[in-house]
Amino acid sequence: MSSTAKTIIRTYDNYINGQWVKSSSGEMFPVYDPSTEEMIAQVSSGTAADVHSAVKAARAAFDSGPWRQTTAADRGRILYKLAEKIRANAAQLAELECRNSGKPIVEAEYDIADAATCFEYYAGLANKVLGHVNPVPANALSFTLREPVGVAGQIIPWNYPLVMASWKLAPAIAAGCTCVLKPAEQTPLTVMEVASWSEELGFPPGVVNIVNGFGETTGAALVAHPGVDKIAFTGSAAVGKMIVKSAADTLKRVTLELGGKSPNIFFDGADWEAAVDGALFGVFINQGEVCSAGSRILVEKKIYSKFLEAMTEKAKRIKLGAPLERETKMGPLVSKEQYDRVSSYVELGKKEAKVAIGGGRPKQFSKGFYVEPTIFYDVDNSARISREEIFGPVASVIPFEGEPDAIRIANDTPYGLAAAVWTRDIYKAFRVVKSLRAGIVWVNHMQPTYVEAPWGGYKQSGFGRELGPWGLEEYLETKQVFVNLDETPIGWY
Ligand code: NAI
Ligand code: MG
Fold first, then answer.
1. CA triple 472-473-474, angle to 5 deg
2. Is the pLDDT of residue 7 over 80?
């Protein structure tokens, strides 16, 4: 890929069938640094025709290419090399991720390490996929073969660009699928850098294809394409619903990881310092641009005022700054569009509740899509700021009276991705865990995510699971094979 020291504007084409390909329309779209609002790259804008080329290549690689002849161990070795190459280039990738997404450099470094760990995990899992022997009568043999689903169309968001790419690509490749991935239009850069290693790592042409572009065009064309067997999507619930409708026409398999409005529940008697920290970390990490953000902070009435005060005091110390500075704890939001969306929720919140801290644009920045960490309190759970995903540094603090009230409020949401509960009472902790309708529940923590454990939501937070063996399952079909061991004719007619 080309870059000149003077302008530092990189250009990227699409990666299709092992080649760098310009858009069939010739059009490119700009990619920005959200802290300076400057353009840092230009990317070829994938058309429906480009998506078609990529699907055709993925189809051919799956149906007749050498990929299907590779062993699971071979695929594991390629994934392992990919993980190692990410580690060897971690500093450059973290810097690029930081500049493109606006997340603090220290968080970007964790992300790059997590992406490597995900590829490494599925490298190891590739050749541990087993079938079953089924206990049919003695004159027959029945067993199952686990086979790849086929061509996977994968659409990812901008909040964790390379991590999201790894969650999608790693299990698909381990399973033996071929992929057409569409990065988020805001943040394609790290994914494109990694794609540029494909040939060197040993991926045959057509196994990994990356087509950049916008959701309504490139993304929609991928979802509708009859050559795609499965769509894996992470993003908004609104787009998730459109994907299910469009995929119905070809009955593709679909897995969805959508948003949330996750409750973070604090009981009287919880470890105080850890709890105050956990309330802030749960909602403000990555500028709050997190699907599992603990954006509804439920606090027991007995400790409500003191807890709110402690949170507010501590939130004053959150260091907003340039993403590349190591002390920065909060950077800008990813885009003007996201800044406008979050700002409009902040304005709405001022009408629906009271402001403890924040509520606008931090004065010290003349450029960049920065939003102050904002805490609303005395929020009713029926307020829009308590029901709708904001995806920015905005928290709703909601009081509750006792355990049943906490559970009722926590579950009173269309979403069900994650939840957390803070208490020293082990009986209460596990009663609450069992009562919460959410795919991930943390006790005395919020957000730690390990590739070994499943990730995904209940209710309108989507369906299917990523990570761990569950994530691989979603890229596998089950073939039942029956073998007759009895040579006598059926004798029915
Ligand atoms: P989005 O859902 O529109 O975008 C996510 C991905 O889907 C991007 O790659 C986009 O190009 C693609 N996409 C958009 N429309 C599509 C379509 N019709 N067909 C196929 N693909 C399509 O999310 P957006 O607009 O960036 O953010 C809006 C809100 O979505 C955020 O404020 C947040 O609430 C939520 N969101 C949730 C995420 C999560 O991790 N669950 C991630 C990103 C956004
Ligand atoms: Mg959108």
1. 90
2. no
Record the pTM: 0.97
9 pLDDT tier (thresholds 50, 70, 90) = confident
Question: Taking 60 as the threshold, does the pLDDT of residue 4 lie above it?
Answer: no
Distance, C-alpha 125 to centroid of its chain: 20
Confidence at 2, pLDDT banded by 50, 70, 90? very low
Taking the C-alpha atoms of residue 117 and residue 365, their distance in angstroms, rounded to an integer, is 36
If one counts every other C-beta atom within 10 angstroms of the C-beta of residue 134, the result is: 13
Active-site positions read 257, 291
Nearest partner of 242 among 261, 228, 227, 221, judged by Cα? 221
Question: 201: Cβ–Cβ under 8 A, 6 or more apart, which residues?
Answer: 78, 81, 82, 85
- List Cβ neighbours of 109 (8 Å cut-off, separation of 6 or more): 90, 94
Number of H helices, E strands in the chain: 16, 21
Name the residue of 160, 239, 394 whose CB sits within 8 Å of the most ligand 1 atoms, as the mutation to test its pocket.
Answer: 239
Report the C-alpha gap between 470 and 474 in whole angstroms. 7
Instruction: Provide the token pair at 21.
Output: 């390909």
Q: DSSP letter at 203?
A: P
The response to whether residue 235 sits with its C-beta less than 6 Å from ligand 1 reads yes
Task: Determine the atom of ligand 1 nearest the C-alpha atom of 223.
Answer: 20
Kindly list the distances between the CA atom of residue 61 and the CA atoms of 66, 205, 254, 255, in Å, as whole numbers in the listed order. 7, 7, 21, 23
Asked whether 162 lines ligand 1 (CB < 6 A), one says no
* Six token digits for residue 396: 């709703």
Q: Which atom of ligand 1 is nearest to the CA of 290?
A: 40
Q: Where are the alpha helices (DSSP H) in 235-390?
A: 237-248, 272-284, 304-315, 336-352, 384-387
Residue found by looking up tokens 């005091």 in the block = 313
Share of the chain above pLDDT 90, in %: 98
Query: Separation of 241 CA from ligand 2 center, angstroms?
Result: 12
Check pocket membership of 184 for ligand 1, CB cut-off 6 A.
yes
Question: Which pLDDT tens digit goes with each residue over 332-352?
Answer: 999 999 999 999 999 999 999
What is the C-alpha to C-alpha distance for residues 106 and 90, in angstroms, rounded to an integer?
12
Calculate how far, in angstroms, residue 185's C-alpha sits from the geometric centre of ligand 2: 10
Nearest CA, atom 44, ligand 1: 235
Read off the DSSP letter of residue 287.
G
**Ligand showing the shortest atom-to-Cα distance for residue 455:** 1
